[in-house]
Amino acid sequence: MTTLDKTVRVASLAVWAICIVALLSGCQGVSTATSSSATMQGKVNHIIFIMQENRSFDSYFGKLNDYRAGTFNAPRSADDLESVFTNPADDGSTVGNFHLTTTCIEDDSAAWEESWGDMNRFNSPNGPLLLDGFVHTGSGFAVSNSLSDTKGVRAMGFYNGGDLTLPYWFATQFATSDRFYTPAPVQTQVARLWSMAATSQGFVHPVEDTNSHLTATTIFQLLDKASVTWKIYSVDTDPGTGKLITTLRDFQPYGLNQESRIVPIAQFFTDLQNGTLPQFSYIEPSFISGRDEHPGQGTSIQAGADFVGSMIRALINSSSWKDSIFIEAFDEGGGLFDHVGPMIDGQPIQELAAGAGGQAVGAGMYSTDSFAQHVPNPDGIPPQDLKSTDPAGDFTRTGFRVPLIIVSPFAKPNFVSHTPMDTTAVLKLLETRFQLSNLTKRDAAQADMSEFFDFANSPNLNPPAPPTQPTSLPCNPGAAAAALGGPWTPP
Asked: Of 149, 256, 414, 417, which has the most beta carbons under 10 Å away?
């Protein structure tokens, strides 16, 4: 649900009545497009968006409140790991949350089957939300891929503000959310389709698995129609094709004819220096060169955080800072534990709570959680490529929470949004700012993200210098499994 812009003056009780009815019906999409667009006009001229890889909110920002209170004296406003939660392991034991002491962990999966299994250990799409399957699915992934953590312990680990100093600082100095979701229970390749088109057109698995492509309209086509400039800045080159990596080529024929606007990441820094940044910048992360924060041997989460920090520092020190919004999110949760359930169409948000009697799934902690969430199938297309082992779900629920960082001179300092939304809200922000049509029912249902910003007061043109991001944590993926009893050998 969007927050009405402060400049709006409601002239009649009838207008208030309409808004109240929408709230009571659980509507997520009360439109503020006109007021928000008018407010952003002349204020925001550049929007930059990057999604890093495969981290849940709890695994990344699990100790955000400790950092906020200790470093900024800010309120403990985030729904993070205030309690130790557990998941059952397949050997009959339980695994609780623990602090990771390694900059890399073994990989895990948020693919369709595993995501449903995380929600309910027995993969029941019609069963209750239990949030009890993260260790189980982590174990299965390790066994299937000959990894050492066959107990699935790594799924319960988290980092703190000492490990991820720069992301924690940006999220607190500027703004963040503890209700920001992957748009569907899907893995990286599919989640990134949603970030461009607000749909995957029925795909739950990577399109390359079936040599397929999408024909859906992308945000870039809407920008073209409105004469809004854009570029895709890509960090890595595909060794097979020799081309810069981008999801846009999965949209055909349009995506195959945009090579001139797919450029190396070095051009981003050059454009900042020269004052030639386009109105929309979509950054494809470091998939191959190890700075995308993806779990896996040799991929340092600290190196990835430092790399994104270098982009934000360059923006702050450029002439474009005065009218820019930098958005960092993660494409999906990577199969890593999160104690807050997904948005499910027609249902309130639920989450795990721990007390003297143990832990149980119950009502979410915010008033906005109690509404029946509006999570429409974007285009009416059901899953088209389900495998025999896949649960027969639909696109009427999101995946899990992911970290979000909003950096802008207009960002509200120390702000934590509790408004449920998924990553297609970034598309809604673009549509609002540049007065574009919606792509699908899904982005139309999102908040337009205007609540993160204060356009009425003077922008923060000279923020404090960001701290240094440590990169010295050792890469020892086996440390995660060893922390709580070591690997388990399936019978």
From this structure: 149
